[in-house]
Design brief:
It is built from 5 helices and 4 strands. It has 169 residues and is of the alpha/beta class. Strands 2-1-3-4 form a 4-stranded parallel β-sheet. The longest helix is centred in the last third of the chain and has 24 residues.
Length: 169
């Protein structure tokens, strides 16, 4: 079975992108389609390589039932453009950096994560790093919506291949 390989990208890979990775993984599991996906996250910069997500990110996610503690920051690599089907940036600056680094044949894989959102008009996930607790909660609201729609969209054409899941569900 072919899996959708999705990489979420932010600056240092300690707030927004690990949130998206953890939430998407959990939602796919709750929807019973986790076998259709491979989720990962990375940063455009190597500021925090090997570090866990920001403690405020971990705490906010845990309050909603998402465990981000095992994740570790890494930087986007050249191989990521080949390996992943979708590289989804948290904001336009990240998308611009990805577009400049990405080989031409893989440009079509790049996009903004919030293009999948249905409940929010925002097109960028704001960086909560320098803000208060509410910023991390807002990031979770945006990520939960976009991740849900991403999973529904990408799994829609493959649900008939998942054992125990009919196309109507």
């Amino acid at each position: 079975m072919t899996r959708h390989k999705v990489l979420f990208v932010c600056t240092g890979n300690i707030c927004r992108s690990p949130t998206a990775e953890g939430v998407a993984r959990s939602l796919a599991q709750m929807m019973g389609v986790e076998q259709l996906f491979e989720f990962d996250s990375a940063g455009t910069h190597g500021y925090h390589i090997g570090e866990p997500p920001d403690s405020r990110t971990v705490a906010a996610a845990l309050r909603r039932g998402y465990d981000l503690a095992p994740l570790r920051a890494r930087r986007v690599t050249e191989f990521d453009f080949i390996r992943f089907d979708h590289l989804l940036a948290m904001d336009r600056d990240h998308l611009d950096l990805l577009q400049r680094a990405c080989p031409q044949p893989h440009q079509k894989k790049l996009g903004l994560f919030l293009d999948f959102s249905e409940r929010f008009d925002e097109d960028e996930v704001p960086d909560p790093y320098y803000g208060g607790t509410q910023g991390f909660e807002h990031v979770l609201d945006l990520v939960e919506d976009a991740a849900t729609q991403l999973i529904l969209k990408l799994s829609a054409n493959r649900r008939d291949t998942v054992p125990g899941v009919s196309p109507e569900t």
